[in-house]
Specification:
Radius of gyration: 21 Å
CATH topology of the largest domain: Rhomboid-like fold
Helix content: 55-70%
Number of strands: 4
CATH architecture of the largest domain: Up-down Bundle
Largest sheet: 2 strands, antiparallel
CATH superfamily of the largest domain: Rhomboid-like
CATH class of the largest domain: Mainly Alpha
Low-confidence stretches: 48-58, 277-282
Mean pLDDT: 80
Strand order of the largest sheet: 1-2
Distance between the termini: 22 Å
Strand content: under 5%
Shape: elongated
Order of helices and strands: EEHHHHHHHHEEHHH
């Protein structure tokens, strides 16, 4: 039996098989409510008189129909479950949440005259102001720029922490952010701010470590690595456009995330071989 979780791709020593949909899940996503089980929806809709009444697995066509019919609802459920899980996780000194708090606090401080200008990255002044390689990640242009960056970090940062450890997450975030800034500086002289390069590095590393993880892009379910390819393709196509987005920074962050993700996955496999209970201790 496949031991990889259908939701996140994590391999369990003793996996859990859902009695409703027949898919394999890890300890985190084992309950039907935690993986938005289509088989459970089928059982609820058809009642005890259905062919699923005896806890048998519904046919694949029925599961697929249920998933297509309730895609938006599943996305909402997954978001709510992930939100609650990450809120609980954040209480345990999550570096992802610490970065979110710092970005929000920094956004408030941008009201102070001169604060924004002193910390933003200006490629032509990089050697005179090297600290901006890091500080630019904590600045954002407007509420929605901050909101969407922090939203992505909120959902995927803790997931990477669980698989790579807190120190592993910090390395990916800051190395990807710094390389993203350097990559951008080679192609543009315009000032740049934002954490998107670092966050896409986190997203890319997670896509390598847990490629089967399911994500929703505009309520469309897909594997996380499919979403990563989509984002990278969009950035590549829009290089050189005047849309005020640092596409080369995004691509540089993705590249770093991929490389570090493969290194982390290799280390995780070694740890798993040495200790079969490794994934439980994560």
């Amino acid at each position: 039996m496949d031991k990889k979780c259908w939701i996140c791709g994590r391999e369990e020593y003793i996996p859990f098989k859902c009695r409703f949909c027949g898919k394999v899940f890890c300890s985190i996503h084992r309950l039907p409510e935690q993986h938005a089980c289509a088989g459970l929806e089928y059982a609820r809709e058809h009642g005890s008189g259905s062919r699923n009444a005896g806890n048998t697995v519904p046919e694949a066509d029925d599961i697929l129909k249920g998933m297509l019919k309730n895609t938006a609802k599943y996305a909402a459920k997954s978001a709510v479950n992930g939100f609650g899980s990450n809120i609980k996780y954040s209480m345990k000194s999550s570096p992802s949440m610490a970065i979110i708090y710092l970005c929000v606090f920094s956004f408030i401080l941008q009201l102070v005259p001169g604060y924004f200008e002193a910390l933003m990255l200006v490629p032509g002044l990089l050697f005179e102001r090297p600290w901006t390689l890091i500080t630019h990640m904590f600045l954002h242009v407007g509420f929605f720029h901050l909101f969407f960056n922090m939203l992505v970090l909120f959902f995927f940062g803790p997931e990477l922490e669980r698989r790579a450890g807190k120190s592993g997450f910090m390395r990916v975030f800051f190395i990807a952010g710094i390389v993203a800034a350097l990559g951008y500086s080679l192609t543009s002289n315009a000032p740049v701010v934002g954490a998107s390069g670092a966050i896409l590095g986190v997203f890319a590393a997670l896509a390598v470590i847990a490629p089967e993880m399911r994500v929703y892009v505009y309520f469309i379910p897909m594997k996380i690595w499919h979403a990563l390819v989509l984002f990278a393709l969009i950035d590549f196509l829009y290089i050189g456009s005047n849309d005020m987005v640092a596409h080369t920074a995004h691509l540089s962050g993705i590249l770093v995330g991929l490389l570090m993700g493969f290194a982390i996955r290799k280390d995780n496999k070694k740890d798993a071989q040495n200790n079969p209970y490794y994934y439980y201790r994560r």
